[in-house]
Amino acid sequence: MNKSENESQMQDAKNLAIQYFKDEYGLDVEITDQEKLAEYISPQINMKGYVKGKPEESFNISVDYEDKKTTNFVMSPELEKAIRAKGIDPFAKKDAAK
User: Fold this and answer.
1) Could you give the angle at the alpha carbon of 23 between the alpha carbons of 43 and 72, nearest 5°?
2) What is residue 95's predicted lDDT score, i.e. its pLDDT?
3) Taking Cα atoms as reference points, which of 34, 36, 62, 32 lies closest to residue 50?
4) 59 neighbors 73 (Cβ within 8 angstroms)
């Protein structure tokens, strides 16, 4: 894989994560760190970030760049509280039929 393809995967994963937070929780987030796992381990890019303007509302999330899906979402207690304040249970199972 060349540098351009790698950068493209990283940007696509970042965009997917940002859109996930917008769609699921109505939040604007900033990605502060990205790390791509070795391809022989897993097709994942791990990210860290926080809600814009609220660095205490932080999270970690992974994006599978082959399936274009988010996984391994972990949030700070402050972010969990903010999501619950919107009337959303961040741990509720999503409808599998989507």
Assistant:
1) 35
2) 55
3) 32
4) yes
Total residue length of the chain: 98
CA-to-CA distance for 74 and 61, rounded, in angstroms?
6
Tokens of 69: 């899906």
Distance, CA of 71 to CA of 61 (rounded, Å): 6
DSSP type of residue 43? S
Q: Does residue 79 contact residue 30 with C-beta atoms inside 8 Å?
A: no
Question: Contact 53/29 with Cβ under 8 angstroms?
Answer: no
Structure letter (DSSP) for residue 35:
E
Model pTM score: 0.87
| Residue 40's pLDDT band (cuts 50, 70, 90) | confident
pLDDT tops 90 at residue 14:
yes
